[in-house]
């Protein structure tokens, strides 16, 4: 009886090398899965992530309109409530975009399941894009809900929808990227709360949300123009009302530069595993 011959084993050179990607330039399946997870994570608690910001914005408008609106004159040629609306909208977008990425990464690190994100064959760019997708979708939904309410309350439409969309997108990318950096740096929720309370919240409140920076004395007027969040709020105000403190093109260029810098640093940290890998 002739023994059965087995086919020769493939040469080592014929096998895929260790570390070689098998998904092409972009792992679209992995990227889509991460983005979907980030979106489903906040949509599972939409009462807190979408409805609660609407209530908070409504309370801000109610308090300020009752306390200051009746007795305060126009600001930059606009009724105070009309002036206030875009600032409230962008401040809410900023807070939600930052919270989405920062809470996702920090919670994964604290719970010890960050390895589930680091182990799949996802590059640093794909991780960055997947996390940012959640912030962009959440910020867009919040902006749509609050913007609709603002139009109904003030009775005015959007002066420049294109510019409004541009600055909402820039805000989502900038604060989503900052949320990634904060999530990488923070090792526990207390550290994340400190970053939110002492950096993000003051920058968003002291950026012309409730007032025009033209009314500030020097050097505070000059310092306000060093705050990138000022340009986000000022750009959104131009998009909604057609009025702004600074040239809208300058604000768009500055915000784009900040976004590129923040996302580049986030990509570098994700690529090296800084404070992510044990």
From TrEMBL:
Subcellular localization is given as:
Cell inner membrane; Membrane
Identify the residues that the record assigns to the ABC transmembrane type-2 domain, covering every copy: 44-273
- Which parts of the chain span the membrane according to its record? 50-71, 77-99, 128-153, 165-186, 193-213, 248-270
Source taxon at top rank: Bacteria
Keywords for the protein's UniProt record, in alphabetical order: Cell membrane, Membrane, Transmembrane, Transmembrane helix, Transport
One Pfam annotation, family name? Answer: ABC2_membrane
User: What does the record say about its membrane topology?
Assistant: Multi-pass membrane protein
Query: What InterPro entries does the entry give?
Result: ABC-2_transport_permease, ABC2_TM, ABC2_TM_bact-type, ABC_2_transport
Q: What is its main location?
A: membrane
Asked if the Swiss-Prot or TrEMBL record annotates the protein with the keyword Membrane, the reply is yes
Q: What family is this protein classified in?
A: Belongs to the ABC-2 integral membrane protein family.
Specify the protein name: Transport permease protein
Q: Which organism is it from?
A: Paracoccus nototheniae
């Amino acid at each position: 009886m002739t023994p059965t011959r087995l086919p020769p084993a493939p040469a080592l050179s014929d096998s895929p090398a260790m570390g070689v990607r098998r998904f092409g330039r972009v792992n679209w399946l992995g990227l889509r899965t991460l983005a979907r997870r980030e979106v489903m994570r906040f949509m599972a608690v939409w009462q807190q992530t979408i409805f609660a910001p609407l209530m908070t914005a409504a309370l801000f408008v109610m308090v300020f309109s009752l306390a200051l609106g009746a007795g305060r004159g126009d600001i930059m040629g606009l009724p105070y409530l009309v002036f206030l609306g875009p600032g409230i909208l962008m401040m809410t977008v900023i807070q939600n975009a930052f919270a989405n990425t920062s809470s996702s990464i920090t919670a994964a690190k604290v719970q010890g399941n960050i390895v589930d994100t680091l182990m799949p064959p996802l590059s640093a760019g794909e991780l960055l894009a997947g996390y940012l997708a959640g912030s962009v979708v959440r910020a867009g939904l919040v902006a749509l809900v609050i913007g609709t309410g603002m139009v109904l309350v003030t009775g005015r439409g959007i002066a420049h929808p294109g510019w409004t969309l541009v600055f909402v997108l820039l805000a989502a990318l900038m604060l989503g990227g900052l949320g990634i950096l904060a999530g990488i740096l923070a090792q526990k929720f207390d550290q994340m709360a400190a970053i939110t309370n002492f950096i993000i919240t003051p920058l968003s409140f002291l950026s012309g949300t409730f007032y025009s920076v033209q009314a500030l004395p020097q050097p505070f007027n000059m310092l306000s123009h060093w705050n990138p969040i000022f340009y986000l709020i000022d750009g959104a105000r131009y998009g909604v009302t057609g009025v702004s403190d600074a040239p809208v093109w300058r604000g768009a260029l500055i915000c784009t530069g900040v976004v590129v810098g923040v996302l580049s640093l986030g990509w570098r940290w994700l690529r090296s595993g800084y404070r992510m890998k044990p």
